Amino acid sequence: MPKKYVYDFEEADYRNKKLFGGKGASLIQMTQLGLRVPPGFIITTEACKDFFAPRRAEIAELEALLEKQPPPEVRDQAIGKLFALINGLDLPQGLWEEVLQHMRRLEEKVGRKFGDPENPLLVSVRSGAAVSMPGMMDTVLNLGLNDQTVKGLAKQTGNEWFAYDAYRRFVNMFGRIVLGIDDKLFSSAWEEIKKKYNAKEDPDVPLEGLKEAVERFKEIIRRQYGEFPQDPWEQLKLAIKAVFRSWDSPRAIFYRVAEKITPDVADCTAVNVVTMVFGNMGWDSGTGVVFSRDVATGENRLYGEFLPVAQGEDVVAGIRTPMDIEEFRKRFPHLYDELYKGVKLLEKANKDVQDVEFTVERGKLYFLQCRNAKMTPLARVKTAVDMAKEGVITKEEALLKVSPDHVLQLLYPRIDPKAKAQPIAKGLPASPGAVSGQLVFHPDDAVRWAREGKKVILARVETKPDDVHGFYAAVGILTSRGGMTSHAAVVARAIGKPAVVGAEALVIDEAAKTMSVGGQVFKEGDWVTIDGNTGNVYAGVVPTVEPELIPELEELLSWADEVRRLGVRANADLPEDAALARKFGARGIGLLRIERMFRKPERLDLLRKVILAETREERVKHLEPLYRMLKGDFKEIFKIMDGLPVIVRLIDPPLHEFLPKPEEVLQQIYEAKAAGRDTKELERLYARVKALQEANPMLGHRGVRVGVTYPEFYYYLSRAIAEAAAELKKEGHNPVVEIMIPQVSDVREIRYVKEKGILPALRDVEKETGVRLEVKIGTMVETVRAALTMDQIAKEVDFISFGTNDLTQAVFSFSRDDAENKFIPQYLDLKILDADPFETLDVAGVGKLVELAARTAKEVNPKIEVGVCGEHGGDPKSIYFFEKTAVDYVSASPFRVPLARLAAAQARILGGGKADRE
Ligand code: PEP
Ligand code: MG
């Protein structure tokens, strides 16, 4: 049996968007719901695929070339070849016969004949793929008109002006779309005619002008192509082919690449042949677009516009100003009522806000298309919650309608889309939010300027932990080096400061206090704007729009909390972060990076003394005052998180990160000598700093290794934590404190630091205070060996937490500070990697290790708690994966907590493994 390629609107299944395309499916659905839809039929996407089939291999090769966006000469040549290939193709076998049958049926249905000079049937031939690709493919209107049928149309409608208006539009469109003639030729001819007849707008052109336009357009076609085809059947055949061809128009190819529309999502276009209805028949006619709710604010009212005496393309082209839908309601109350009812019916049937195209022909309303509306994040959240409350959708469906990105976008200021500013450089969007400030190049300057009430952006080549005071003082952070998990990025995200990192085009000279790019030089105090949502950097102040924490979002997230299995905690290091995290719904702290507490100068000073000390006694001498200083911060944070777990990680980074660079010390020695000062201390410092230098600091003397070599260090840190907890308990609070050991690779490291540092501290504090402490002890899993020896490690600890940043670095052997700027972009381009593994967990490699280690941990220690505290804990796709493993909770920076709550709920509903959303 030959394939069936053509379906009437009445006979098809609207759920099969892959076969009928989105537009086709909507025509089927609206017809079957009883809305007034002009009769018609659909040629399936299957027909389009079979149309291309004979030259598929060559076509695919040219598509692949165009997808890479080659230089214009190469592109134009490729398009020329591609279109020549496609133009040489015939419609697949049997298709034309089927079209003829359906055209006959259509003629019977509407009581007009195609090509009939007295009472002609006219159709539109419209594209429509499985997913909406607005404006990317082609459509031909008013098809079937020729020198004879135009007279029939005039008679039939009693409106000669209208008939010729339709004809001039058709000849123009046919020439442009089907025959590929440059539209400028038509539009300049049209402009001349308008001028000749003193017509301000198109409807002012008199009948003779329209007739003249038809003749001139036909002449253009004659010169460019040959005689304009008068036979409507030939017009139809050519138009169907042209719509098929438009699947491969350069803009459609570009759009598919940009929107990641792969063949499994949409493959080829359907063709919709629909009886024409005319919005240009007079002032009781027109065409419009309406949304079932306000797509900017989410308000439950129709939102849209209507253009009288017009056809669809006039609205899109914006040649005349349409009337607001409110105005339409006042002028045509009955039509408005009918439209409202239809739109709401569609909203209910499709369980989403609808974007509906309609036409009014002589006071009669026709529905031409519907689809789910695209909305601002604000409207997306509000409408999802409202629809769930109205019973249009369930709470679970509401949770799936909002993407985690929407939540993120709602919490940060954004560049005002109306600003249309041009960036001077682009880096990585390390921490969301857009902000303007005056440039400073040193953290101390940031603090000083901020004290004077100035808004500053701290620009650095890269950042170190002891820059962090500058982070707090600045409104945003900009670096020319570093990746998404570089220090600047992690810290900025943690404290919710907008940051752009690794903007390599910028030449930042910290000493000269200048930043230059492409010949432009910025000095200290110059204003710049950074957009941490996109990575763009702008000169001057670009206006931003402030975020709103709308009550609907809070409500939606409370529904998410009812559904999700995964817990959500926060990575927070300071009291203000903890407060924000709690406000955003974190159920505890999954990672408190202790090193951030050393940001205050007096503490950093003591820490340096500890590091530089050569004996245990000397170290203890400085640790004593240091731990007392930390205790206060711990108390504050534990109090904020009262009743919820707080996991404090013992010190992790390589020690030399807290020390000055050797060359800086040398410089000081040189200066001291020149001034005749004693240099003994400085020389000792230099020797120690040199001794601490390492070839591979990331793989060096850090984390638990410091705890093993200097157990007193871990003793005093644990003591600060334990004393804070004990004091709070005495004060009647309920601190839930846990201690975490970083960088472990062997269970014996854990045993050693527990015995020599952590447990003695806890015992001493219990003894001294008389308070019984129940402090859980756990480890990070961020080395491959820790993951692989989980059967031993899990028996030794109460909890584990995957440090997926370091684990990714270790599994790939990619430096987390360099990879994203050096080669990952090219790896992504070449599709060697599907995603940046520092952003989205590499399921095949790192994921396998997480899955295995989490499962093993639970097998050997069923009570063990398993978390993730790397950046992936705040990444939706990674969260969808963690749902499928034995991971109990994720921990994300405070600003990502709401997003993680939503993603965890979606993961639960969908059973994990969900790929892209919206
Ligand atoms: C990690 O490695 O994933 C982690 C959370 O630790 P840090 O980023 O502090 O190295
Ligand atoms: Mg780590």
Automatic annotation (TrEMBL):
PROSITE patterns: PEP_ENZYMES_PHOS_SITE. The keyword Membrane does not apply. GO terms for molecular function: ATP binding; kinase activity; metal ion binding; pyruvate, phosphate dikinase activity. Its EC number is 2.7.9.1. InterPro entries: ATP_grasp_subdomain_1 (IPR013815), PEP-util_enz_mobile_dom (IPR008279), PEP_util_AS (IPR018274), PEP_util_C (IPR000121), Phosphohistidine_dom_sf (IPR036637), PPDK_AMP/ATP-bd (IPR002192), Pyruvate_phosphate_dikinase (IPR010121), Pyrv/PenolPyrv_kinase-like_dom (IPR015813). Residues 553-907 form the PEP-utilising enzyme C-terminal domain. Gene3D superfamilies: 1.20.80.30, ATP-grasp fold, A domain, ATP-grasp fold, B domain, Phosphoenolpyruvate-binding domains, Phosphohistidine domain, Pyruvate Phosphate Dikinase, domain 2. Its cofactor is Mg(2+). Keywords: ATP-binding, Kinase, Magnesium, Metal-binding, Nucleotide-binding, Pyruvate, Transferase. Pfam families: PEP-utilizers, PEP-utilizers_C, PPDK_N. Residues 18-325 form the Pyruvate phosphate dikinase AMP/ATP-binding domain. Belongs to the PEP-utilizing enzyme family. This is pyruvate, phosphate dikinase.
